[in-house]
Amino acid sequence: MEKFLRPSFFLIFIFVSFVSFAEAAPDNYPSRDITWIVSSAPGGGFDTYARAVAPYLMKYLPRRVNVVIKNVTGGGGLSGASMLYRAKPDGYTIGYLFYPGIAIVAMESDIGFDLNKFTPIAQIAIDEQGFFVSAKADIKTLSDLQKKDPLRLLTQPKGVTMYSFCVIAEKLFNLKAKMVTGYKGGNEVATGIMRGDGDAGILNLNEFIKYVKSGDLRVVLTFSEKRDPLTPDVPCVTELGYPEGTAVRSWKVIFGPPNLPANITKTLQTAFKKALADPELKAWVEKTEKPLAYADGKEAWGKLQKVLTVFKKYH
After folding, report:
1. pLDDT exceeds cutoff 90 at 33
2. By the 8 A CB rule, do 217 and 134 touch?
3. Burial class of residue 55 (count of CB atoms within 10 Å of its CB; 0-12, 13-18, 19+)
4. What does the alpha-carbon distance between residue 18 and residue 273 come to, in Å, rounded to a whole number?
5. Which residues pair with 95 in a beta bridge?
6. Is the pTM of this model over 0.90?
7. All domains of the chain, ordered by start, with CATH?
8. Is the separation of the CB atoms in 293 and 124 below 8 Å?
């Protein structure tokens, strides 16, 4: 009997030792370079933030490794999201999911993976949006937007976040909107408004405030909870009586693959939190007017769920 038991005990010992080793292995994390997937081309807003934050993330990880930005274009962010979803959950692949846009696409079609299974790590920023018009236009208030018939809204094609922003604004404010689509991005929309292709567009406030300062564009309202420091004289949707309009914002949240271990997630969260508090990175924020806003993954995910209820209601 003893002869048969010994091999069994030996196998159990090996199994337990293996499991213990597997659980202890992440304590050595990170031991090699981390890939940060950015699902858009270099030079855009998400890419700019990633390249600004990455050196400071490296600084505050428990071990010195590189954080390498990998741009994966295609599918409006779906290609990069798919790559992240299928990555090994070992903490060496992280990336953005383009919320709320990617969730809107998932509402309307099968994207091939479950967004709810990703591991939320940290929010690094929220991009406030503004309703922009030409500085020469006679549109100065929300009431002016509501009276315009039709109100020609310049936007990217259906399925892109900007288009969904316009749909929500149309229904929320009861606008007589006509979507003028086909624009490839915010820069083209801004140029189109200045050129007179249409009446208005919804654009990233921080990125396009430069055209307000140059006297080419005007911001009628912001989709923020309170007046933005960049536009202190411009009303926000909350004070105008449309609090659901705060859903019209772009979230820069970092995710890991499904089943990312809790201790690895915590290590990354701690590093992101310290990175965003670094004085040198704060100086970059002041210089570029690109604000950072840290929240841990659980908090960020909770906020996104509330936002998505608004998109489901109006989309």
Report:
1. yes
2. yes
3. middle
4. 33
5. 37, 255
6. no
7. 23-127+250-314 (3.40.190.150), 128-247 (3.40.190.10)
8. yes
